Queue: 3 jobs
Job 1
Amino acid sequence: MSLRPVTSESLPVRIVLIACAVGFLGLFLLVPLGLVFVEALRRGGSVFLAALTDRHALSAIRLTLFAAAIAVPLNTLFGIAAAWLITKFRFKGRTWLLALIDLPFAVSPVIAGLVWALIFGAQGWLGPWLAEHDIRIIFAVPGIVLATLFVTFPFVARELIPVMEMQGTDEEEAALTLGAGGWQIFRRVTLPNIRWGLLYGVLLCNARAMGEFGAVSVVSGHIRGKTNTLPLHIEVLYNEYQFSAAFAAATLLALLALLTLGLKSLLELRLGSHSSIRH
Amino acid sequence: MKPKTILLLLATPVVFLGLAACDASKDSGPKVHLLNVSYDPTRELYEDYNTLFAQHWKEQTGETVEIEASHGGSGKQARAIMDGLEGDVATLALAYDTDAIAAETGILPENWQSRLPHNSSPYTSTIVLVVRKGNPKGIRDWPDLIQPGIQVVTPNPKTSGGARWNYLAAWAYAKRAGDGSDGSARDFLRALFKNVPVLDTGARGATTTFAQRKIGDVFLSWENEAFLIEKEFPGETEIVVPSISILAEPAVAVLDKNAEKHGTSQVAQAYLEYLYSPQAQDLIGKHYYRPRSEETAAKYADVFPKLNLVTIDEEFGGWKAAQATHFADGGVFDQIYTP
């Protein structure tokens, strides 16, 4: 008599379970993603191209890249510093700092936008002073960058903290006893250990920075060709009944998502095969 | 990954930043920039008008003017101007929103509405009912909206100018239909808003709710927006003209202090004045707004149905009074609307 392994189910159960999982994935991930491309190309390639090379579309793309180009490196630096501090040292207020880092995850992006409006708006705290010196923060590019910075703040730190927590401080301590300096330890010991977490954090941070809608919408002022980011540009097109153009612009964000995932897998495969035993 | 690689990864976005900055600084030619802060349904009108005006201005002065536009719910846009959105002109859905800017910030004088002809409104519109093709629910006039099982789509009167016109048009009807008391009008509106499944923040959002997402049986809409739906979604909707409606007068104004700061006072003034020119009035008619000029209006007479229109001044004693009674915090709208 053959014994059924306890870890495997009977064939029908397996089929049902797999069908459920695949069906769910298809319905909630693949179909919507596919629809974006189908809708975008519905009126043909020339409409698609025209939508992407439109003056306002180009400026929206430029602004989106610009905001991400500032937010991502800054939040990367911050994330590394914060994760280093939180995992390698024990100090008073550590849990409090941890909670603070999570704040942008916890509050709605709209609040994040309104906060900036309250501080920098014409009737906000700093409004009169800014007006006097002719500095424009909200309804201009700096406001968009600030909002993006705020919402993407926790991504890198959040990815790094568990990784660094798991590694503990043994290796750093060993390096210390061998006479390494602080920067040397960070560069030769810590950084190589956290590279995957870091990379993943940076990718997620970038994806969110480019895709953020809520917070940016509050501070943007929706001036076409000037303060519309790509997600806002999509909304404008949709509101103007230019559905194909809206979906064409949406394909850029969808492609960004696919690229993010592809890049991550690729890097893991290539670098993982010959240098890492950890990941 | 080597630390160098990480530094490289970090450096890439910085290079991008440089490129973006260079690229952005490139397009600073000898141009005048004008920012028009407007409400939702004027997108198409001003897109065409901006081209028309830019040509006119070029011929007149040789100067190239580039007009930027920002659209959204009228109240929301007024809020943005108060918060520092530095528009040179405001072309909002109703005078009250511009009044609020004047009162709260002093960006423009309180008597702004007397500075241009016809109460500073170069075009008017009204509120009509839009129903699905063939009018399956048999909606003919205002009282049909409060029947049980009818879903009415309108944006939120707190944030949308069009929605306030909707509300007041319904009120004008209700005052005449019942015993003429405020109480019966109030009951009518309470019943009407009970039939409203979603309140969008702006007119355009409500339009997409009704036309694109197919929610609701009847849509209280700007007349121009109703025509636009027929154009964008041919054969799907019908316009029902109610027995009575309101004369909606969207008003335009130069935002003096902003324009002075940008050195655009002259072009901003010209931008609004040119709205009254025959060419612009014709464009206005083409975009389904009712032209102010009688000549142009005659040309479009068969487009716009004649109907009984009340005005905000005669019926409600002006926007300030209407706002205070109906839309202020704790006003009639707050009392009758319980989501």
Note: Chain B has two domains: 31-123+249-299, 127-247+307-336.
Job 2
Amino acid sequence: MSAPQLDVRYVADLVRLKLTDEEIAELQPQLDHVLSYIAQLNEVNVDGIEPTAHASAVYNVFRADIPRDCFTQEQATANAPHSGSGLFLVPKVLES
Amino acid sequence: MDLAGLTIAKARRMIQAGELSPVQLVDAVNASIEKTDPQVGGYLSRDYERARAAAEKADTKLPLGGIPIAIKDVINVEGDPCGCASKILQGYTSPYDATVIKKLRAAGAIPFGRTNMDEFAMGSSTENSAMQITRNPRDPERIPGGSSGGSAAVVAADEALASLGTDTGGSIRQPAALCGCVGLKPSYGRVSRYGLVAFASSLDQIGPFTHTVEDAALVLQAIAGHDPLDSTSLDVPVPDYSANLNDGVKGMKLGVPKEYFVDGMDPQVATRVREAIEVYRGLGAEIVEVSLPHTKYAVADYYIIATAEASANLARFDGVRYGKRAEAPRDLADHYGRTRGEGFGKEVKRRIILGTYVLSSGYYDAYYLRAQKVRTLIRRDFEEAFKQCDGLLSPTSPVPAFKIGERMADPLQMYLADIFTIAANLAGICAISIPCGEAEADGKKLPVGLQIMAPGFEEARLLRIARAYESAASC
């Protein structure tokens, strides 16, 4: 692990999170502090150690491919901030 | 009726003897909430009429027939709000029941009330709720713990017989310890997570808060088991958790991890836990010292893994299918950026950014992959320890409840509140916190929690060990 070099403004943009300048000024030193704490993992010898992704080793869980009840169109769109004609309405993405 | 000291087991006996009806019980819980919750602030909302209607139809022959149970605001209950104490999900109404809710209903229980929490379960004090402050029932100046602070507080304040919470790094056990009730984190894969709003999917588990270990066994019995809708729930038989509850600990070996008594912990907490260990010795358990050498890396490890998973899970909050949406966006990027920027609170933003960073190109191996390897070492520590003993005893939290506002300025200090609980989530084992006396601070008596840990899927043993102390301590 190299020295902390998290650029809050850049990462926030990657993850589509618009922050104010005040928020960035507050978050930057806090996250630098957390990262320097996390850097202690560098002390651990992990040569030859397999990573653990899950507490229980289960892989490729399948279930029978049978139809079952699911939400109606009305239920699925009921919580949408904007919907119409049974669809989710979003800002225009492509220019006409 | 007064709910003080009323357990599920006792309420069930009264209901079956005809001394109490489910409707009277829901009314009593509602009255207790009206009386006490203005001071505690544990509930975000409740639907009294619907709970009362369910009580009228309750099948009292079922194991939890007619028992109201409060639900953390992160678990979906059909027709109830599920806001995760976040601004981004206000106005959301669940279109379905989580599997745990279906199972509770099948056992006769009545989901009643939404409890406060740290936003998206991120925090250790419930102060990160975007909705309200929850106060510790023992001292209104202090936090109830978190993230399931509301679920713990309402049980401790006798505003509920039991509640459900979730535990990703200690979010059931730590508030249970700080409020003075029982909090059980089942093994990873024991309880279905379907219908739980995901924070860190490889760590999250749902579990109960109760007044007694016996009640924790009753609730776990109802919610445990394989679910085809959660591919990480394991198809392992569910034993009878009450059958051997009172068999005691005579002849058992109980380990005390030396790394769990650290500098900087409250001396009164250490003393109470040492006294509890002596109680176990008196009950015929052999006490052995064990070592979990990678303990000191658990918090750092957790804050890589949990934030990485959170940054991926919270990508779904995009203002399209549900939740808040920013007004009049210029374009799609502005729509996403402002929806999320305005909707998420500070701690959630901190964790999304940290999690995105540790997963980003060039840093993945150095942070995330390394953290997963350290996780293997932490898991192995427990495997080795459980070769030498049947269960582990430790403090749940290094300190009793701290004051509201005390740790908010320093996120790292807040993260260290979970120093003793996080490893159990990384290892996937089961653990419980039970009350073990009090610590005095500023003239107030604050609860102290004893944490017991057992190997994965050994909840029956875990509950039996916990019950042994509880029955000895209440004599």
Note: The radius of gyration of chain A is 23 Å.
Job 3
Amino acid sequence: MSQNPIISIKNLSYQYPSRDLILEGVSLEVLPGDYLGAVGPNGSGKTTLLKLILGLLPLKRGSIELFGKPIESFSDWDKIGYIPQDVFQGDKTFPATVREVIESGLHGEQHHFGNFRKKECLPMEKAIDMVNVRGLLDRRIGELSGGEERRVFIARALISEPELLILDEPTSGVDFAGEEAFFSLLKQLNTEHGITIFLVSHDLEALAHNAKTALCLNRKVVYFGPAEGLHSQAVIESAFGLRAWHATEIYEHGR
Amino acid sequence: MDADILQNTSFLYSLGVALLLGLLSPLVGMFLVVRRFSLLADTLAHVSLLGVAIGLLFHIPITAGAMIVAVIGGWGIEMLRQSRRILSDATLAVFLSGSLAIALLLFALQNVNGDEIEGYLFGNLASVTGLDLSLLVMVAIVLLTFFFLNYQKLFVVALDEDLARVNGVHVNRLNTLFMLIASLVVAIAIKIVGVLLVSALIVLPVLAAMQWRFGFQKTLFLSILFSEMAVMTGFFVAFGWQLPSGATIALFSLSLFVFSYLFNWPKRVF
């Protein structure tokens, strides 16, 4: 199998108007089947990196290629499933059922007013079972817990049968048990279904234990390599500062 | 006899306008409410009033004046919002007070009498003309086509704009088109419900329907049902008792909301 990178970033820098550089000289590659976790303190540029990869911010310096195509001319967005962070932010009133939210992932192919051809229902049914949300289909999306909501958005992303899933802080607002279940779902999607995963999180511990590859950002790339390497003192210190490393030490020894 | 026929035609015109508005308003309102942009309807109504004032000044049909100015205002609001230099709701404040101020000045300069202004503020069935109905039929065709073609896209944009962009939706273009169509609906709605009560027509039926906690499509259909109920009851009460139609329609919309809210009380999630 060829190993052409799914994401290829070269010398990427970004600066918001009238502010300092938030990303500087970032280069990395994400290979098919990888499970990459990007971590870094607040303001380290990890969300900016994600938005640049998704084409939500204009590329200014450097280059990004998705599936071998420059992002400026990339149009095959069906290959990428995006799971946004905490869509409803506590808004329980949004009038949509889980089923409607998942169905809306069939963008471009849907019939009007939600009538889907039978053929298209197959991946939908499969997606629903893959992330185990069948019991939630008739619930209203705003009434779900954070973890349930994120699973629904994964199901929504899966129905266009993406090769790459991009997740923004998927475990924010999710309790510890929900977080464990969530990471095991991601692992399953990655290992059993071969879906490449790129997720951004502030949770260094969770990434170190779950991802295959880790990217530690603090404006520049502090670390890019096997996820276990996140535990090294040098990495944590240069990204989060000395005190963070001590805290992690105490956490590790207390386990 | 002639007067009777005139009366009848005018009645049919206003009935037609009311029926169509009852269908179109919740379609616009639904997407405004879920995107937390409910006050847009009020703002566009005030901008439309400026259009009325300009229409009187240049002796063009006032509904046409209202529609033209509302579309320009709606476009301006959307551009200011997309520039992200001002918060969305603050954008509305700029347009709402600005256009009302200019409209009042233009009315004063033209010595428009208080009764006439009151008609624009609170709605006046007798003011509806055949031209209004023709214009609204055209708006209805445009709006229904737009919604039929873009329903799923509008839904995803309502969920999350960034998600919609990643899914290949041209979000800014869609929002601008939606804004222009919403402007046209509001510009005609002020004839029936008046500038100050437009929200009762656009927002209240949707809010009432949302209390029943259904999914998106069911909520949309229920809000159209509620809207037609309020518009028709309000219309005939206003017509029968010579009352301002804006007030009667608003009151029936409000009753439907209060009923829906209280009926669903035990199920409410706080």
Note: The two ends of chain B are 59 Å apart (CA to CA).
